[in-house]
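Today's session is about reading a structure prediction critically. Students often jump straight to the picture, but the first step is always the sequence itself: look for stretches that repeat, for charged clusters, for runs of hydrophobic residues. Only then move on to the predicted structure, which in these notes is written as discrete structure tokens rather than atom positions. Here is the chain we will use throughout the hour.
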Amino acid sequence: MNSEEYDRMYAQENSYWWFVGRHHLVLTFLRSVYSNRKDLLVLDIGCGTGAMSQKLAEFGYVVSADFSPHALQYSKRRDLSRLCAADAMRLPFADKSIDVIVALDILEHLPDDNAALREFQRVLKPGGRVVATVPAYTSLWSGHDVALMHFRRYLKGEVRSRFETAKLKIEKLSYAMTFLFPIVWIVRRILALKKDREPKASIVNAPGPLNGMLIALLKSENALIKRLNLPFGVTVFCMAQRADSP
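Below is the predicted structure for this chain, in token form.
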């Protein structure tokens, strides 16, 4: 991403409904399997400006890794100390050394997402888990994706195929950000028609009360995702486990 997008993320990642809702979804599932663990080694790959890493600290020790020096500089501002410059397709970690990998909207940035998933499988301990989100549906492609330097968007079946090929056993696979899908689809379609518009991430400021309502809506949706798989959405959510037993 360009520096302007990192500026925006750093300013909004702890308050903006999109980020808050996504972080809550990840924490919901991690707490369901690691509610009493505080000794895990967690890799936050593609950590961005570090807000998710701060939240993951409740489970133990967090390594905040990113390919971008800009991202690591912002993460350092959050007083994160375990920072690592890393390429997700060639992780600088030993085999079977990581308990949990969190990969939020990182796979779409990689020219070879399959290589990254093989690396995830390699560095996970037996029984270790990866929690990932990726953007859904090519039909939602717009200047938002160009600004964020995406290579692709995904269908749920494509996510399943990639994870299973990498020998990662899927425990949960669902679309997310479902309630807001119609609005996002319309906005992205309009943006895609504006050929002369400078590509920018479609982060629209929401007044405080509206932002709070959207956060509450997404938290309700996350509780629903815990019980069933939603049929469509702006995001694909996946939790998978290294196939061999601990």
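Discussion point for the tutorial: The chain has one domain: 3-242.
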